[in-house]
Design brief:
Elements (H helix, E strand, L loop, with lengths): L1 E5 L10 H14 L4 E7 L7 E4 L2 E6 L8 H26 L3 E5 L4 H11 L3 E5 L3 H4 L9 H14 L2 E4 L2 H11 L6 E3 L15 H8 L5 E6 L8 H12 L5 E6 L5 H10 L6 E5 L3 H10 L2 E4 L8 H8 L3 E5 L4 H4 L8 E3 L4 H12 L2 H14 L5 H20 L8
Parallel strand pairs: 1-2, 1-5, 2-4, 5-6, 6-7, 7-8, 9-10, 9-12, 10-11, 12-13, 13-14
Antiparallel strand pairs: 3-4
């Protein structure tokens, strides 16, 4: 089976978790007898074609995308046009059994290439504009993106979501037919999470041995709920001595969050690192006592999975896909009531003062994450490929008149 995966990012071009997902899925599909070709962009500096870990990657030379949202939509349209031009040549040269695209950013090129080939089109929905903006999609450009997403899930032969929560979400807000929507959860590979920094030295940069270090990781945007975590930290530092925190990430809410931290008197207790690479991130998980995932909207919760795999206790909001990563029984991590900073503060303060319970949760979590396996993700994805391909090739029933 030969498959064309289409994604606007693929390592080393990384904008978020989508790039890592497509990479791991592609590499493991290649190990399951699938010839995987990825169509993506070069970021302006990568070769047009290369083989990375058994995956053939084809790239268009797009410049860095603009930060203005209106200009970004126009940039996406141009990227799709350039990808289509390259993709048509690949289709005529190679032929593909199906096209599998990821999110709205490449929906246009993927649908057109599948139509050119006359083959099935699968879509993985990682997140929605409706969810990211808490339902506010009536104004441009959110209205445009929302419309693209609705068309995408209606036109695709199969929709894949990363959690049961997202299956219901895309049905409710995008109208995706439940009968054509399959849940295949994300995964984690502990081998990718090995630290490269000297951990004692790294921890000394942020906390003393007797202090407790709290980690926040992700895009600094409203829906990730970091403002709630800062309010909770302000509550905890008033009652517990020796609490330190680190925020690793960047985004549109960064300046606002820093202003909030200064207003709460938190800046003397921690620091904002900005964007950090995977090597630093995976090391931070190992030197922190707790990672907080306070999301308001979270399709899955990869940060929680990575933190647990690295031996860091996770406290997550009781919402979305996080419920499928951290069970409610409190055996591998802890939940707090979503959008409630006081509830988060209570949970955080309690576990930071109980080393024995924290160690027990960490040990159980290391076993729990083994169930989220990329080989299994690839196996199930390949099953969907075969199912959709067989349905597409089956002769249509004829009805006598």
């Amino acid at each position: 089976m030969r498959v064309l995966l289409v994604s606007w990012e693929y390592p080393p071009v990384i904008e978020g978790g989508l790039a890592r997902h497509v990479r791991k899925l592609s590499e493991h599909l290649a190990r399951h007898a699938v010839e995987v070709h990825v169509l993506s962009r070069s970021g302006g500096h990568l070769p047009a074609r290369e083989i990375r870990h058994g995956v053939i990657v084809h790239r268009v030379r797009e410049p860095e995308f603009p930060r203005d949202v209106g200009a970004f939509v126009r940039w996406v349209d141009r990227m799709n046009a350039d990808m289509y031009e390259l993709g048509v040549g690949l289709c005529e040269q190679l032929g593909f059994d199906l096209v599998h695209s990821h999110d709205w950013l490449v929906a246009d090129v993927a649908q057109r290439l599948a139509g050119h080939l006359g083959c099935p089109w699968l879509v993985t929905v990682h997140a929605t504009e409706f969810g990211r903006h808490q339902g506010w999609v009536s104004s441009y450009p959110q209205s445009h993106i929302h419309a693209v997403e609705r068309h995408m899930v209606a036109a695709a032969d199969r929709v894949i979501t990363c959690s049961h929560y997202m299956r219901g979400h895309v049905a409710a807000v995008l109208g995706a037919p439940l009968g054509r929507t399959t849940v295949i959860q994300n995964a984690v590979d502990p081998r990718d999470l090995e630290p490269v920094f000297h951990l004692d030295s790294l921890r000394a940069r942020f906390a003393q041995p007797h202090q407790r270090l709290v980690l926040l990781v992700g895009r600094l945007v409203y829906e990730k709920g970091f403002h709630l975590a800062l309010d909770a930290l302000a509550q905890v530092v008033q009652t517990l001595a020796g609490i330190r925190f680190v925020v690793a990430g960047s985004g549109t809410a960064e300046a606002e969050l820093k202003a909030q931290a200064r207003r709460l008197g938190l800046m003397r207790h921690g620091s904002f690192l900005g964007w950090v690479g995977d090597n630093m991130l995976h090391s931070l998980y190992r030197v922190a006592e707790v990672t907080i995932v306070p999301s308001i909207y979270e399709p899955f919760g990869l940060v929680a999975l990575e933190a647990m795999a690295c031996g860091c206790l996770c406290i997550v909001a009781d919402t979305g896909g996080l419920r499928e990563v951290v069970p409610a029984n409190g055996t591998v991590g802890l939940r707090f009531r979503s959008r409630d900073s006081e509830a988060l503060g209570e949970v955080l303060g309690r576990i930071l003062t109980n080393d024995r319970d924290r160690a027990k949760l960490v040990a159980e979590a290391r076993e729990h994450v083994l169930a989220f396996d990329w080989s299994e993700v690839a196996r199930r994805t390949r099953e969907v490929y075969l199912e959709v391909s067989m349905a597409a090739s089956a002769p249509r029933a004829t009805h006598p008149f």
